[in-house]
Amino acid sequence: MLMNRRQLLTTLTAGPVAVQLEAQSAPGLRFRAGLVAYSYRKELAEKTMSYQDLIRRVADWGLDGLDCTVYWFPDNSPEYLASLRNTAFRNSVEIYNAGLRVQLAQPTPELQLAEFANIRKWVDVAERLGASHVRVFGGNVPKGATERQAIAWAAEVLKRGAEYAGTKGIMLGVENDYGLTVEPGPTAAIVKQAASPWAGINADTGNLRTDGYAQLRTLLPYVSSVHLKSQVSTPDGKKEPADWTRLLEILGGSGYRGYVGLEYEGTQADAEIPRLAAELRTVVRKLSL
Questions:
Q1: How wide is the angle at C-alpha 231 spanned by C-alphas 155 and 23, nearest 5°?
Q2: pTM score, two decimals?
């Protein structure tokens, strides 16, 4: 059967490209590049940028998704959430994560119940947005409590929250950040004690304080989402430019497949983020299936 011109061109061009991509991609690695909305915290807080504007920028930069830090939503009405989801669909951007201010380590049943109610509220919001992951914080160690007690309290709230999130098909990930989760060990312990298939870790590579590459390995069994920053810590606690290829190979080697979201914490967002987004897109496409 004779090929038409389009079929012939497709055949001629697909071969070398496929070979090149196969040569670049490591077997089994699969990532998607995202942007964390917190990167534009100043603009969102001052309302000089809307979440719809941010979704369109993500699309313009060729990224796959938005980690939608919800702190600056103007409201949580069904109409507003539907408008965000529609904007994302029309721009072929996935809202894959919703970041909350929840703090898990609460010392009394009443405070634990209140934090669980907060999780339920925002999991419902995430469901309306189409997000399959919600990020929470461990919080501080309550005054007078031991780290062991705080881990147990945080695990209890995480377990209850994850059980509810799981009914919606949503993962709940605790981020390694401040207070109780400043070190990777306690962060992993919270998730291990929660013992839920719907509980994981939102691994922030820039928040690892001492030898980020080594400390990341402590979190690997539980990683459910990832924040990448432009810097990573050295063994002596200093900062150096992050090797994203190395970080992704560590993650991929553990079996993680999913989003890696750029989180920018500097003050020159408009100048720096487009460049960093392009770098992340290149790394992800090189390594991924």
A1: 95
A2: 0.90
